[in-house]
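About this split. The held-out portion is used to measure sequence recovery: a designer receives only the structure tokens and must propose an amino acid at every position. Recovery is the fraction of positions where the proposal matches the reference. Here is one held-out target exactly as it appears in the evaluation file.
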């Protein structure tokens, strides 16, 4: 389309046939099926070398051997009016559509409907004659652009989701469909392109994916907690019902404390030291010390570790170093390429620490370390106290 001076002045249809008379200098509706449209006269204002306004007329012929797709379903009347109805549908559809001229340099837009202008925010004169790449921006994927370029070069149908930009700079996700249009001789002449704004759909899909991950995480955590509770019930000493109930209650409360801590912090990974202090301090008070790097662990790891800290602290208070005024407890941990290692050190005793028999708490600690955490545990008792070393090699990838 040519523009000059004042721009577009007029368009007229040129026709011959047995239909009604046609004024070739005005718009006309050609209703006769025998009328043959010869072309369109494009009239524009321009200025000559003497700055005088002149009217330039140009006859644009329709492309030879170009025929539209046959309707999938139509009556005889619908088929007779197919071209006019197709033009009406093109303008009235809510789906943004453009057609580009594959024969012209840079594949410019030659038709765009109102839905496209509404989606992009551009006016008609800002769209016609331009390549569609003006919708791209700094965050548009180079891979999506390459896929479009490859589809155009190979003259094949292309479907791609691409981040595009409106005139005001806002972005939208465009589900783009491109289809080549060939003439009867198989020569490429146009590209058809439709757009669907899937921005909101992508947000919904992202939310659904997040909800699925959350549900999977809840299921995983629930199974983990239930497994720990099962081990509490199974290995606790049930010979005295009252004592059994009290021990189970305290152990479940310890597990619940860790659960509540994670809940308060949005179920993000939390420092190992926070859980150690939470479970050890109520039983050991100021006689407990803690030292180690700020390693953050997940609920799957810290819930069983919390139960282990509770059992070790309970044993220290009832049978170990804290039974004497000078007794102390030191909890330290370190992480390296070999994994996470936790040290429990009881000091200040005079005589053997905690006896030599393994009680129900000891059985529970061993089972938790070996079965749930896939680790190893080692105890060293002497006259000065007790050292427990817990090695967790599966946590080797944790940062120190």
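Reference sequence for scoring:
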């Amino acid at each position: 389309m040519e523009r000059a001076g004042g721009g577009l002045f007029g368009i007229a249809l040129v026709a011959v046939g047995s239909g009604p008379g046609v004024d070739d200098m005005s718009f006309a509706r050609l209703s006769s099926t025998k009328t043959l449209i010869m072309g369109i006269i494009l009239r524009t204002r321009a200025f000559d070398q003497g700055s005088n306004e002149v009217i330039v007329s140009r006859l644009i012929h329709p492309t030879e051997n170009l025929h539209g797709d046959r309707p999938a379903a139509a009556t005889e009347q619908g088929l007779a009016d197919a071209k006019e109805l197709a033009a009406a549908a093109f303008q009235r559809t809510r789906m943004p559509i453009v057609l580009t001229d594959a024969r012209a340099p840079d594949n410019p837009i030659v038709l765009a409907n109102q839905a496209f202008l509404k989606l992009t925010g551009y006016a008609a004169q800002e769209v016609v004659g331009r390549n569609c790449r003006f919708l791209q921006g700094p965050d548009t994927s180079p891979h999506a652009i390459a896929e479009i370029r490859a589809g155009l070069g190979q003259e094949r149908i292309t479907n791609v989701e691409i981040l595009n930009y409106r005139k005001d700079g806002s972005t939208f996700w465009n589900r783009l469909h491109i289809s080549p249009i060939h003439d009867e001789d198989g020569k490429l002449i146009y590209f058809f392109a439709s757009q669907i704004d899937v921005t909101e759909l992508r947000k919904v899909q992202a939310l659904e994916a997040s909800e699925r991950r959350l549900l999977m995480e809840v299921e995983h955590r629930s199974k983990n907690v239930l497994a720990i509770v099962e081990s509490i019930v199974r290995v606790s000493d049930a010979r005295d019902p009252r004592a059994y109930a009290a021990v189970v209650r305290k152990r479940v409360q310890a597990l619940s404390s860790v659960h509540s801590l994670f809940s308060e912090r949005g179920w993000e990974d939390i420092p190992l030291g926070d859980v150690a202090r939470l479970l050890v301090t109520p039983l050991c008070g100021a006689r407990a010390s803690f030292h180690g790097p700020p390693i953050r662990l997940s609920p799957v790891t810290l819930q069983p570790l919390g139960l282990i800290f509770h059992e070790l602290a309970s044993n220290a208070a009832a049978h170990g170093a804290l039974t004497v005024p000078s007794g102390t407890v030191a909890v330290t941990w370190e992480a390296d390429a070999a994994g996470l290692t936790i040290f429990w050190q009881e000091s200040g005793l005079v005589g053997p620490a905690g006896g030599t028999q393994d009680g129900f708490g000891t059985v529970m600690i061993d089972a938790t370390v070996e079965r749930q955490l896939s680790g190893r545990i080692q105890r060293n008792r002497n006259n000065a106290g007790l050292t427990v070393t817990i090695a967790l090699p599966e946590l080797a990838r944790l940062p120190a």
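Annotator remark: The radius of gyration is 40 Å.
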